[in-house]
């Protein structure tokens, strides 16, 4: 794939991923990953120290589907809604049809009472599989800046 | 228009639209719309319920010019300034020279005393007319996340 | 350079610039500028009035290296970390291999105790030299919205 087409294909994947979450179409979320995959939410501190301890981990699309089911059961979207901003999408390298991509994210959260606040900032460290008809995440590591994050029942980042 | 050229043309329209607002060149703002157009600011709640009740509505470029005149009379730029961030610009479909485009926005506001805060987040739901020399908004629906928004004398979003 | 390739090359420069700062690889920062350059941080107020009084000024890559050394000595990264969002990158004109580029930025800051807040918004007014193998900033003027900004020992914006 030519550089320009690849850049826009990756940005489009990120845009669709984010739209599914923000627009409460969470059932679409696992579909942005390959069948075998890695999805992890981890603090910058632990990530920089090489500690593998994150606040969420999944290694298959099935686990992501389970997560969605749990969130639906908890009616989480009644209580809060996210709005993602993704910026500075940087393809570092491409090998064997997999692109290594870094980007900055910001998530704002609106609570049920209407209050709006900054929820999380950080980086997406993605491995994007470009071999199929649509690009898919083979790996998505969400490295958040703030020390602690309450994601027990949180919407995916 | 090829996909890549169209994506960048739409992103450029959004960038110019935003720059005119943020840089206090509001007189340029109506020029980003077609003569007959739709510009609406509406809460997510009302939009999702299909209620057509927004906080602002205009259906012609002339009405947008009137809005600018009212804002100038109120000297609104003395009291506050906006900064827009636009992200994840997604062209959903193109038909008859009109592109349906969704994007996420974030607006930060600096008040006269220098304080800075998050003012609004939400989505732009745009219909962009690509048939002329420059792309123009035929429709722009601003769906904001927070329940209430004071836009009586607010700068356009 | 064709329009599309140029747009993406400029966005990539901004993305790499931002990543070096946010990921604490500050030693790379001066390398994004030409040897003779202009880097300035100035308030919108002073910029609009044509007052040349900013909070930081450098006119060579060497001065930027000195700044990095001072920041390292002060251990500034222990105390705070930035996250940049860059949006609406707009190439206004190109002449003699130099592109005039405007973009909106937002910087969020995470303090050592884990608190996260909006630190600064504003515009990048850049002159990008496209004549070499990699685009470089010949000029970068950071115009911030909030009236005052404490940058005595701050990380570059």
Overview of the structural elements:
The structure is a homotrimer of 157-residue chains. The first copy, chain A, is α+β, with helices and mostly antiparallel strands. Chain A is built from four helices and six strands. Chain A has helices at residues 3-22, 44-48, 61-73, 76-79; strands at 33-43, 56-60, 80-95, 98-111, 116-129, 136-144. A six-stranded mixed sheet of chain A has the order 2-1-6-5-4-3. The longest helix of chain A has 20 residues, at 3-22. The radius of gyration of chain A is 15 Å and the shape is globular. The two termini of chain A are 28 Å apart. The mean pLDDT of chain A is 92.
Structural key phrases:
44% strand; alpha+beta; globular; 6 strands; homotrimer; 157 residues; 4 helices
Summarize the structure.
Chain A has 157 residues and is of the alpha+beta class. Chain A has helices at 3-22, 44-48, 61-73, 76-79; strands spanning 33-43, 56-60, 80-95, 98-111, 116-129, 136-144. The longest helix of chain A is centred in the first third of the chain and has 20 residues, at 3-22.
